[in-house]
Design goal:
There is one protein chain. By secondary structure, the protein is mainly α. The protein is about 55% helix and about 5% strand. A hairpin with a 5-residue loop joins strand 1 (about 35) and strand 2 (about 40-45). The longest helix has 25 residues, at about 45-70. Bound molecules: adenosine-5'-triphosphate. Adenosine-5'-triphosphate (ATP) binds near residues 27, 29, 52 and 53.
Amino acid sequence: MFKVTAASVWKPQKSDRDQPIPKIYTKTGDKGFSSTFTGERRPKEDRIFEALGTTDELSSAIGLAREFCLEKGHTFTHQLDKIQCVLQDVGSNMATPRSSARESHIKKTQFSSEPVAELESWIDSYTDELPPLTHFILPSGGKSSAALHVARAVCRRAERCVAPIVRSGEADPDIGKYLNRLSDYLFTLARYTAMKEGNMERIYRRPE
Ligand SMILES: Nc1ncnc2c1ncn2[C@@H]1O[C@H](COP(=O)(O)OP(=O)(O)OP(=O)(O)O)[C@@H](O)[C@H]1O
């Protein structure tokens, strides 16, 4: 069974006690090669694994920010849950290069534009509540807000990794749009979180 990333391991587990539970390590990656969803073996430094790994880092950064937000009682954490699930779908889409995918692979890993529209509606509703931006702000505003800024910066790196894969036609253009919109969402949410917690956002001042 294909696993999107090592950190999101899923292996079938039989309830039947006679069947051994498969081990997490198959050792098939020990020589520095791994598999796409379509069964191709590629070196681990291939751009697909680079993009999958960066998307995994992004989900992990969001997971940490979510924990800080939960501690503060923020009510928007269900959005972060949903985003982490959508990022799994982004990974599945990238791990299924169109050049070697069968119709059934493509169907199973299709990415729709609906999550992009959802992010836009969330961004718009936070923006309505925020004061307009008049300065460059620095990642700040308390732990939840600063952690969301870290996630935003990782998101932009994921976007840079995904761009050439989308451009080559190997992945769905909507995953590029999703990551582009996601960094705007994380920026806006970081500001909203600072405001809700009553924390100052530090602004850029030219160093004397
Ligand atoms: N270092 C990596 N960074 C990002 N994605 C990876 C990496 N290694 C593998 N992958 C992708 O994540 C999936 C799950 O990772 P996993 O660690 O199980 O692969 P593996 O190294 O090939 O196998 P094993 O760890 O069992 O030897 C792989 O099928 C591959 O698509």
